[in-house]
């Protein structure tokens, strides 16, 4: 079933793209998520676990592997269920027009997200993780003619993909230390290597879930159409980091730095995000910063790692997905019907857009953590988890969660009050009501109440999911009414009261805020490009000889570590005395090649080198080589004489300094090669007997070299012949080109300008 | 291993490197040919001591030189032959187009270098 559903998404993408008529694009697109949501819902709370595995390279432990347990089912219901509503909403949001590409990309994202939450193999997880980054990039940049959207998309991609690379590094380290790439087979790990893996993986999670200081991409991503913001940038994709922290908890939770780093960053993000939400006047940006803040709380809870905290984190993921998607949809509806999202100018919407108003009130109350809405028990769980922590760190966590929550209530209050207040003067004009744009948000908003009423059922779904991450989560429940003797309840009420007062005050004095944040990323990118250009300009002058000298020098240095392994026992002056004489001849002729300034003379000297090498082959006992070399050398010398006919007869001379550099490099390179060769000397037993037997019995020939080439390694020889044929074709094409072109073509201006 | 052969390889490499760092394509080509020789001799030197020609029946098996490196070396000779001729054709074509066989600086690299130099002047 897992395969069918994932492939259905893929088929859906193709189907949507190839629709002859754009009208039903969203309707076709929602079928695969609908099927996934229904299947996943049927498995909620069930103890069964489904797996699917496709081995790819078994030796490397590479496989595509999925595992759907309680957590996978719960997250899939969120991903696919909200996905279905988003497609419905998209139909209303866009009204008409050809949206096939958009619907297909959104569906591709939906499938990637599903793969991500179901993955049971770290590489599978990583693959889908990156797929969500790429689809997010495409969706943020939907308005490809709008430079703001394009910049925001690029920024989102850079931050999340950079985080993806860090995550990849972390996973590599983790797989090494855990000994397996399958998540369900990993046991807890500790130690230095595990610490490195933990930090890298946390950073990866932080980028995806917009934690400080990587949060900058998320508010910018609001340039995307609202269905995208509601789906990717609040309800699902940004939760990927939280989910990752969750699934890594059983493996890395015992690493010292894990919870400390996660909780600190999470709480700081919660605070800073809430401040951001209080500052902005664009309703969508308020929600975006609010999302950053809420993600901070979830990160903190998930990495805190106690049974209650994990339970709270999973509950928050569920509650947040429901209310934040509703809030975004309502703001999007206001946006398309009034053309504005500005808290300071919109007026009279309470009467003109009652549906959006009530949606935002209920979803907002859920976000603020007020009963009777699902956000309340989830927030209660978070506060109780903080209360359970002991010592100074426990107090700090409680303080952080409390302050963050007060601010959450404050920005929620401010948002709803400011958005729907009457500003005096005329009410904002409102376009006609669209069912498709309103219905999904009404449904989600209502789910907040239903979820509260049915809290025991929700508990039955959330607890098994949390228990797969931390068994100690098993005993907890979402409480509709914690009772008057519960400390958490009174803290919670204090939070609501304090936040409401601050929020009401902030709504009245709404000063226009300065846009903050994201420019830093752009500046970093620009600086990096400048630096790359500068380095390239300095290092890469374009002169091939300089490059070659640098390469030769570096390669020569690489020999140094091997110098120690030269073993004089393995060396002797020569195999046969004749070798010394012929060797001297060869080297002398080679030097002559370099010294002679006449082209023909140099070519002839090269011929002497070739003949000398042939003689060396004969001395060594390799007549076949000698024969081949002789033949080849003859052809090459003839080739030189023909080929160089048209050129000046003398080589141009070089300056003294450059010549000295070249000679120095050359001597060093020669010495390095000699040293490397001597260091590699070792008495390896030859398998002459086996080769002889194979050649005579199987190949049917006595000349061992010939049989090796034509029989034992016949395929290699075939490849070699192909290389020769290709080279011959190249030579032919190049020498025919001049007859067609008739000699010297004029230089282009570019070439002339740059030539020195 | 025969030190003589190792020295021959070193000598051929030296001259080869010296020649390929030249601006003249023809000399680079000569350098490539020499480096090719160096590689083949290195293979041979690595193959062990000299012996009788590796033809079964001519001498006792123990006295034959090792045929396997020879087979590799033969392949190397043929490939470097192909390469040399191809480079020769390239050098010839270059000479026809520009009148000499000198290697130009890379256009893109030069452009970037010039741009950064210009920016440096502005600053």
What key attributes describe this structure?
heterodimer, A: 756 residues, mainly alpha, Four Helix Bundle (Hemerythrin (Met), subunit A), two-stranded antiparallel sheet, 72% helix, 2% strand, elongated, B: 123 residues, Helix Hairpins, 4 helices
Class by alpha and beta content of chain A: mainly alpha
Give the fraction of residues assigned to helices of chain B.
over 70%
β-strand percent of chain B reads under 5%
Low-pLDDT runs of chain B: none
Biggest β-sheet strands, sense, barrel of chain B: none
Oligomer: heterodimer
**Roughly what is the average pLDDT of chain A, rounded to an integer?**
88
Q: Largest inter-chain interface? A: A-B, 115 and 98 residues
Major sheet description of chain A: 2 strands, antiparallel
The helix/strand series of chain B, from N terminus to C terminus, equals HHHH
Q: In CATH terms, what is the architecture of chain B?
A: Orthogonal Bundle
Query: Total helix count of chain A?
Result: 31
By secondary-structure content and strand pairing, the structural class of chain B works out as: mainly alpha
How many DSSP-defined strands of chain B?
Answer: 0
Low-confidence stretches of chain A: 740-745
Write down the CATH topology of chain B.
Helix Hairpins
Form type of chain A: elongated
Provide an overview of this structure:
The complex is a heterodimer of chains A (756) and B (123). With 756 residues, chain A is an all-alpha fold. Helix content of chain A is 72%, strand content 2%. Chain A contains 31 helices and two strands. Chain B is mostly helical and 123 residues long. Chain B has helices at residues 3-20, 25-46, 67-98, 107-122. The longest helix of chain B is centred in the C-terminal third of the chain and has 32 residues, at 67-98. Chain B is elongated and about 70 Å long. At the A-B interface, helix 22, helix 23, helix 24, helix 25 and helix 26 of A face helix 1, helix 2, helix 3 and helix 4 of B.
